[in-house]
Amino acid sequence: MEITKDIQYVGVNDHQIDLFEGQYVVENGMAYNSYMIMDEKIAVCDTVDAHFTEKWLGNINAVLDGKKPDYLIVHHMEPDHSASIDAFIKTFPETKIVSSAKAFVMMKQFFGIDYPDNQLVVKEGDTLSLGTHELTFVTAPMVHWPEVIVSYDSKDKVLFSADAFGKFGALDVEEDWACEARRYYIGIVGKYGVQVQTLLKKAANLDIQIICPLHGPVLTENLGYYLDLYNIWSSYGVESEGVVIAYASIYGHTKQAAEELAALLEKKGCPEVTITDLARDDMAEAVEDAFRYGKLVLAAPTYNGDVFPFMKEFINHLTERNFQNRTIGLIENGTWAPTAARVMTKMLEGCKNLTFTDTTVKILSSLNDDSRKALETLADELI
Ligand SMILES: Cc1cc2nc3c(=O)[nH]c(=O)nc-3n(C[C@H](O)[C@H](O)[C@H](O)COP(=O)(O)O)c2cc1C
């Protein structure tokens, strides 16, 4: 696949994967992107997951057409992009590996060798001339690993963005970009909003016309749309007005309260109401929604003097990703000594800029007139 006259796509689609990074369901598979810049010198950008080494080397050889690559640029050392480095160097032993100093430390850790004869270490602002194309390297520490670099090709105005601007999903499946890019970003990069903001500021100084990420489609049009979304996500801003109701329930009474609240909010004209069962629905999608919308209601039963496990897991996912700037409502249930609301509040206490509603709905086993009235008050507060 041609990206520009000189840049070719040589990545692979993975439809065998069950869980990406050991936890994310990827119904439409995954793409491990790799690119080749064909100039006086030839550069290959990043390798692919170990299951696809042979296919990837085949893609490279087809483009090389008998020539030899001069450089392998390693933007990121996560194994889905780096696992084929060793096979590449065995195939093309004269290639220089261009990467950050930290990446070579990681190569030693992953492969037992840091390729001393092939090393070309780059740091912020270094350039590499391929002939007519010149790459400038920009460090992007903790987006979302410490060794990450991105590179900018001033000739074709391409940003090789590493995992930034990536998404779940193989490239041979058509699907909406934002939904799976948001789930990917919040899940995997979400904790590092400050670092992504730093990268966006550096990128603002470049004339970028094409973004080549390590996952998902190459972005060629309307780049402002993607950059705006990245700005919202990385500044923990509200992307969409609405309320997310995340619930867990053992016998169904908390679920009923969540559903009644959703109906009340819809009746009262809430622009968007999303309801999710934390035990059954995709946890990563629930986390994504919590970061997308401005208001979040947590509804859970008390469990052994604590809160029901799926809610605990959900809140841990939020706090681990620097959840902030949101309005929170709580619904707790318990039969003899309810503690769920207290536990949930405590779990969120380190989060910045959360506003809790005045009303916390307290259910004793099942909804009654008092708790239904509280649900109505909570709905009014959230509107
Ligand atoms: C294993 C287990 C432990 C529980 N621990 C508590 C508890 O510590 N305090 C309490 O008030 N209720 C406790 N409950 C009761 C539930 O929180 C309560 O019945 C609640 O109404 C269930 O809501 P649901 O209908 O949405 O599942 C426990 C229930 C189970 C199954």
Automatic annotation (TrEMBL):
It comes from the Bacteria. Pfam families: Flavodoxin_5, ODP. Residues 243-383 form the Flavodoxin-like domain. InterPro entries: Flavodoxin/NO_synth (IPR008254), Flavodoxin_dom (IPR026816), Flavoprotein-like_sf (IPR029039), Metallo-B-lactamas (IPR001279), ODP_dom (IPR045761), RibonucZ/Hydroxyglut_hydro (IPR036866), Rubredoxin-O_OxRdtase (IPR016440). One of its GO terms (molecular function) is metal ion binding. SUPFAM superfamilies: Flavoproteins, Metallo-hydrolase/oxidoreductase. In the N-terminal section; belongs to the zinc metallo-hydrolase group 3 family. This is FprA family A-type flavoprotein. It comes from Mediterraneibacter butyricigenes.
